[in-house]
Write a structure and sequence with these properties.
By secondary structure, the chain is an alpha/beta fold. It has three domains: 4-23 and 440-532, Orthogonal Bundle (Helicase, Ruva Protein, domain 3); 74-303, no CATH class; 538-775, Ribosomal Protein S5, domain 2, CATH 3.30.230. Helix content is 47%, strand content 16%. Helix 18 (494-510) packs across helix 19.
Length: 800
Amino acid sequence: CCDPKTLGFETTAEFEPLSGALGQEEAMKALAFGVSVASKGYNIFALGRAGSGRRTFIQRELENRAEKEPTPSSWCYGFNFKEPRNPVALELPAGSAKLLRARLDALVTDLKRAIPQALEADDVTNRRAAIYEDRGREATAAMEAFRKGVEDDSNVALIGAQDGMVVVPAQEGEPVTKEAYEVLPEEVRQAIDETVRDASKKLFQTQRRMHELQREASGLADDLHRQVTRSVVEHRFSILKEFYNESPRVLRHLDETAEDVVENWEKFTATDSQTPDGPQAMMGGPPPEDFFVRYRVNPIVTRDRNSGAPVIIESNPNLWTLTGRIEGQVRFGVMVTDFTKIAPGAFHRANGGYLILHAEELLSRPLAWTALKRTLRTRELRPEDPAATAGMMVPETLEPEPIPLNVKVILIGEPSTYYRLQQADPEFEELFKVKVDFTPHMDRTPEAEKGYASFVAARCEREGLPAFDATAVAAVVEEGSRLASNQWKLSTRFRAIRDLVREAAHVAGGNESEVVSRAHVEGAMRDRHLRNNRPHRELLDLIKRGVLSFEPVGIEVGQIHGIGLIQVSDEAFGRPIRVMCSAYLGTDGVTNIEREALMSGRIHSKGFLILQGYLGRTFARSKPLLLSASLSFDQLYEEIEGDSASAAELYALLSAISGVPLRQDICITGAINQDGRILPVGGVTEKVEGVFSAFEQLGFTGKQGVIVPRRNVENLVLRRRVRDAVAEGDFHIYAIDRIEEGWPILTGLEAGQIQKDETFPSGTVHSLVGRQLDEFVREWSSMGSEEQGPEQEEPQEESK
């Protein structure tokens, strides 16, 4: 128990709330080492039991460290004007990503107004008109010269418009029909044909020249438009570039954007038919506004200035939440996408800082563990296309430029997960070189007890709970030892302590108390036990009604009560189980009925085999051991595992052999070795309290009790009512080191130490066991002589 006077305070209001990692100094030291090493592979695996404060302590430590570190860069994806399938990654100072997008959007909006205005200015219109007029006059002159030459020749005529003009046969300047042409003399037709061919050739040359002049005029006009557009664009982009002089990649992208605007100046002079409400949109085609998406940027990672390094906790670590994804939309039944639909993952958000993941969650997601290893190995961030990753056919996808990765990954998991990965994955130790091991308990020192008080004070302050007085904190400390299953340790599973603090404060609030006392803490524990222990109550009721056999009265040969441990969710409780043994003459050895029925686990089978080793070591060093015996557990219908019943089995076996009866009001738990030493077992507190409750159902006699291994005494952290019953003599707890120490308790007889002649003192249990085993040997030998006698007489009769 914990003496409230040793805590040195009246209420936790006097205490400074806990800010560090109580009891986890070694783990915090390892964490500090891991985060300070920048070399590749020095990621961290923090292992410990759930509820030990792993995530809370790590997150708090990292956040304190991160706020002093420089804020990493922001990142955008931009359009790649040379390779549209490969969006470019743009690195910017923190706080600049969203601002760049806003500035570019505003700039494009301004250009949509400014470029048409500049192109429609009077001087530009006049220059454009002059270009077309000059080339038009030249084209007209060329056509007029051709016309004049044709008109002078009476054998040809021109029909059609200027662009579709055709040379046809004629007489006296008038076109002739086909019939009239065919009746002409051969010489005339030949002359006409030659003239038509010559004129057609000249017409072709003239028309080609006219088209060249038209293209030349269009080219000159386009050059004029680009020149005017460039003057509009360069001025505006030069102002924008001044904000990003320290970002060379952004400057280059802005130059490429400006050049693309100049080359696509006509897109900024769209007519009504090209607007989103025009015919193209009505036909269901892609809206023209999509073209201007290329001038945007996608801020995939944004940072606030002077915010420090990021600390990201990803609670759903699947492939796409880790590495990012490329989203899309369906058009005409086909999935299409662009760089603005690249979504960031946890790695993007944590880049330049720390990423915390739960190992069990990560390993339960398909492809997530492989993606994590690949990302850490390559140190590059590549968003994934969900459809392509799933192996589906995708007609259009992107391959964004990878973003360099600089992140410290902290995996949090159970110890079993760590060791399983260490054994199964050869890359694990290369990628996670730092092990942070959270201990499940700490030494129960005065400082640790006051640390508990600081923890309680912190919870009260953070959640607005009433203060705890010294008696309440003492009760919480005692519960901490109980959770640690050790009188000299305190549990570091602070989730359970936190819940107890909340529930005790609730009980105090129901009693309208301004301060939480021991009574409130004990009331909260009783209420919790009542909520969780219905299976135990039902089992005790079965014992009380005699359905489950438990008759702790008198003495019996070959019978003793062991203690089983039942685990139901977070509740564990012990139950008495009668162990029965029959011993008789034979050579079968000791039979484990549960093992023969395939109801025995490997550890229990091992413990059972140790019994035979003890028998041979103690009673058959220089003589044969002839014995048949069977051991079983009454009313046990599930698999039995563990070796904590070995001591009970040995007492029942030796009792059955010797005929010495055993007290039925004493239960026992403990493992043994072949030398008869009693070894510690698990769950000893729950076992003792479970047997206590069973005796309580039937009524105390003042003689009932339990035998436990002496090495488990420090693991006994009993409830107050059990301690009070022991102090008052209603219930007894016996601690022994060797099997021999239990015989006086169970039988009133000494075990008996072996003597030089391998016999035992008369009147001891061992002497009775040895005598019976010797009797079995004599009976077996006499039975053998009787069977062998007639066989020896037959040869004598034949010799006669």
